[in-house]
What we know:
This protein is mostly beta strands.
Amino acid sequence: MLRNTLFALALAAVFWQFSGCDVPGMNKFSAVDTTEIRLDSVATISVNVVNGTVKLRTSQDVSESRCTIIKKVWGRNRNDAQKKLKEFKIVADIGNGGFSVVEETPERFHVKRQVDIELTIPASSRKTDISIVNGNVDMACRADSILVSVVNGNVLVKGESRLLSVDVVNGRIDFDRIFDTLKADMVNGGISGTLNNIDYGEMDNVNGSIILKLMDINDIKVVASALNRRSVSLDGFDSLVENDDDVIGVLGTGTERTLKLSTVTGKISVSVEKHLYALK
């Protein structure tokens, strides 16, 4: 992958903007880097930053990919913040059909900082991999696989993917649309979403609830496990079976799709909804 070749492959409009406010002991400055990239499609997308937000969109209405990167640091004064801003390295690379944004700051760069990334691409990607320590991820895209890892923050995914895998320690996971295979792991927070189609899914939560809505799915087996079985609610299924460990809800034969859910301290709620045309 060729580093910093965005400017060789794209029409770039780059500007830096510094703005400050007089707050005792802290001045806030921001840097904005806007780049227009001439690409018909991006096969892979990779983002790896510490603090910030990522917003990703795929759209058939755009002919070029667009990326906006906003860097922010906080310092004792204007000169201090401007100096730290220059040390705050965000490297954007492009090559072999892939696009990546990586934070490359010094190991001992103990500075309050943030980078906000907004990316719009004209076509679906094969793989999207996003990793953030502190921040939120907002995605509305199509991809063969979507992998998201967040320590402290929320993840919102809308779109279509053969594989969606989300890991969050503290925050929320919300999803919508069609995913062939879905895996979600949460430690502290909630998982919620609407599934229009799924072949196989696993969702595990330690301290929090799982609340799902199944739309226009006629054949599926849902296996729900909670420390307190009274906290499990499965509504709209053709049959329910309870055993010592699980509550099982079945639609149709229950052989075409499988969804496994588990929580320790929260509740599990799954409801089945069908549009009128699906009932005919």
